[in-house]
Amino acid sequence: MNESKTVVQEPHCNWSKEGPLDVAAIRADFPVLERIVRNGKSLVYLDSAARSLMPIQVIEAMKHFDSNHCANVHRGIHLLSDEATGAYEEARARIASYLGVSDAGEIIFVRNTTEALNLVAYAWGIHNLRSGDEIVLSVMEHHSNLVPWQQIAKMKDLVLKHIPITPSGELDLAEAERLIGQKTKIVSLVHMSNVIGVLNPMDDLSRMARNVGALFVVDGSQSAAHMHIDLSSLDCDFFAFSGYKMLGPTGIGVLWGKRTLLEEMPPFLSGGSMIEEVGLMSSTWAPVPQKFEAGTPNITGAVGLGIAAKYIQRMDRNRTLAHEHNLISYAVERLNELGGIEIYGDLSERASAIAFNIRGIHPHDTASILDSEGVAARAGHHCAQPFHVALGIDSSTRVSFQCYNTRTDIDRLIEAVIIAKEIFGL
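Given the sequence above, the corresponding structure tokens read:
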């Protein structure tokens, strides 16, 4: 990798790194929260599990990069290319720091979690799995951690097994222990549910995978934004997440993998940038991580993601997680006061999201009425259809939280839910 000078500076924030989270000052960093939306209502954004908002520090960093350092990376010897390479590799180093990784070369930039998990499935799975081998997933998974393995299973005649959930919406660890056996080659699981926010016990699940010599893959799409992630202690082989769920831009994500595995794996995509030498009949590959970053990467997106990571680190994820737990407890309390509300999952062990339904109202109608009151929420299966089947429902209304949400946002949510119930005569 080109060791070039840093051109993207640390994000400047007008709030203290110490003491309680200054949510009012943090909200000032998110310009979209000033919008007036439906029917003259101010925006209440409760859809961060689908996409979090971006602070002005991220927006300005990307704008500054494109305005002053716009060039391709790893290819030129002129000043702008050198600066672009420096910014891109500094973003990689910042993500490594964010994840507690000492080797920044283990950080692979991809478009999103979906691409990251496909990379593992196709670059490792196809070349290492044999007919009859087993892959253990769960019914809780986002489609991005189901469909790639389904495709590989069809190609290689593999067996898919799925850990069920308990009545309280948690993974059934006794069943997990039974399903993960000597034929299991991969255990790939979500860290934090994007539907109900439940945190899965990764230490227990990793131990089960290790006991049978299976690889352990973690979908960290939700957890990376909300929790302190230390991959030196989280015993997994691959960890994937998307930038747009952790205050960053779309089109950029990360796959972390152990270097020993990455070096053994062939490229997922091939072409420009990922090569060492090219002849008319054969080619050799660049070293990790460039081997997996074919073509011109999303340089500006990587810059933005690096700044987003520093922004979250500055807040301290323990403080933000405590803030979100407080919001969830308050929201659950207020929703339960209304009556006629079904909230899904264990209410004590969750972070960032609540899935609920108003009895007698379809979730799409609920979300539409919330929208008319300026409250942005999500309705549907949230790319987790099998999980909804396991919960005994077709779809749900989901509200999800980030550092910029307040109890006032929840009060606005409750007011909108009351209006929905009145409209339907409930």
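The CA atoms of residues 274 and 294 lie 5 Å apart. Try to locate this feature in the token string yourself.
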